[in-house]
Amino acid sequence: MIDGPFAINVQSMLIVMLVSSVLMAAVLWFAFAGRFRDGLAKWTTSLWVQALAWLLFAGRGLVPDVLAVAAANGLLALTWALQFAAIIEFRRRRVAPWLLWAPPAAILVLFLALDDRQLQLAASGLLYGAANILIAVSVLRGRPRHILRARWLLAGCYTLAAVTLIVRGSGAWMEPEGLETALTANSYHGFLYLGTYALIVAGSFAFLLMHKERSDEETSRLATTDPLTGVFNRRTFIELAEQELARSRRAGTSLALMMLDLDHFKRVNDTYGHLTGDEVLVSFTRLIKDCVRRGDLVVRYGGEEFCVLLPGTSLSAATALAERIRATCAARELTAKSFRVTASIGLTAYAGGIDATLGDLLARADEALYRAKDEGRNRVIALPPGEGAATTQRILPLEQAG
Q: Is the pLDDT of residue 7 over 80?
C-alpha cells in the first residue's frame, strides 16, 4: 500500500459518495417528477439504490457482513442494471424485466457462495468491469438519429470505471489482506474511491446532457419541419429557397420551382376521414422524396399543396421530373383503401440573366398550377418566367393512365 500525505480516508469518501448520490437523485426527482421518460426514471432510481449501497459499505462493522458486503454489492449490480435499462429506454426501446433482476441476483449468489473475501473482491471487480464495458458499448452502439456528443462522455465514464474495477479486481489477487484493507486510509484506495465519485457525477451529467441535446434537436426540427410529413415547413423553405436563388444568381445557373396539389383532396377527407387524408399526405410526400434528389428542397406549402425547389435544374428537366411524379401518383394507391388520388403540378424556372425574385417564381409556379387545375387537373404545366404562354404537357385521362 502507498500511505502518506496523500492518503484519503475512504470512510469519508463513502459518505461523500452517499450524499452526492442522494443530492443528484433528489435534484432529478424534483426537476422531472411527473415527466420521467426515456430512461430518466430508471436513472434516478439507480442513484437512490447506489446511495443505499454506499450506506451499507460505510456501515461495515456496524451491520452484519451479509448486509455490508453481499447486499451492498447486489445493490451496486442493480445500480448498473438500472442505468443500462435507462440507456435502452433512452433509445425508446422496451427493457426486458430480467435485465434488472438477473445481475443483482447473480452477485448475491456469488457473494453468498464464496467464503474467501479476497476471491469475492477479485470476482466482483472483474464482473463489474465487464458490465461497464457492456454499457459503454451499448451507449455507442448503432447510428443515433440525433447527433449526441454527450454519449462519448458517458461511454468514456463507463470505460474508465471498467478499467478501474478490473484493475481493482486484479489487484485483489496480490493483496493477502483482501477486503479488510478496502476501508483503510491510504492513497491507493482513497484515489480509487475518489475516481469512482468523479465518474458517478460525470456519468449522470452526461446522461442529462444527452437528453438536453436530443431535446434541443427535436425542438429545432419541430420549428423547421412539418410535423405530419417531416418535410420543411413554409417558413424554413422560404429562407432556404432565398439562399439557393441567390447562389444561382451568383453562379449563373438554372433553378426550377415546382408546386404540386392533390386533386379533390377534400373529397378524401369527407369520404374516408381525416386520418386517411393524413395517410395520403404522408404517402404522397414519400413519393415526392423518392423521385427528387437529396439536395432538392421539399416543403408542405399548405394543406394538400407541396412545393419543390430544384437547384441546378432546367425547366425541361424539371418538367420531365414533374411528369414522373404525376404519373406515379396516378398509378399508385397511396393508402390501403382501394382508391387513387391524382396530382396537378405547375412549375417554372430561373435560367439566369433575369432579375427574378423568389416571390416572382412562386407566383409564376402558382399560376401554372392554377392553369393545370383549370384545364382538368391531373396534368403538368410548365410556365417559363416572364413569358405569357405556358408550355403545357397533355396527358391521358385518369382511367387510361397506368
A: no
The pLDDT of residue 367 is above 90 = yes
pLDDT per residue as tens digits for the range 289-327: 999 998 899 999 988 999 999 999 999 999 999 999 999
Euclidean distance between CA atoms 357 and 257, whole angstroms: 12
pTM for this one? Answer: 0.67
Please give the mean pLDDT across all residues of the chain.
82
CA separation for the pair 15, 24 (Å, rounded): 14
Fill in the amino acid letter for 326: R
Residue 354 — very low, low, confident or very high, per pLDDT cuts 50/70/90?
A: low
Q: What are phi and psi of 307, to 5 degrees?
A: -140, 140
For residue 264, give the C-alpha cell.
Answer: 379533390
Spatial distance between the Cα atoms of 58 and 377, rounded to a whole number of angstroms: 79
- d(C-alpha 299, C-alpha 289), whole Å: 10
Residues 91, 75: Cα–Cα separation, whole Å: 25
Q: Is 113 exposed, middle or buried (0-12, 13-18, 19+ CB in 10 A)?
A: exposed
- Residue 369: what residue type? L
User: Is the confidence at residue 353, as pLDDT, over 70?
Assistant: no
The CA distance from 288 to 113, in Å, is: 64
Closest CA to 299 of 290, 311, 308, 289: 308
Q: What is the CATH number of domain 234-400?
A: 3.30.70.270
CB burial of 94-107 (b: ≥16 within 10 Å; e: otherwise) equals ebeeeebeebbeeb
Write down the domain spans for the chain. 10-223, 234-400
CA–CA distances in Å: residue 327 to residues 241, 287, 324, 342: 26, 11, 5, 8
**pLDDT tens, position by position, 115-133:** 777 777 778 888 888 888 9
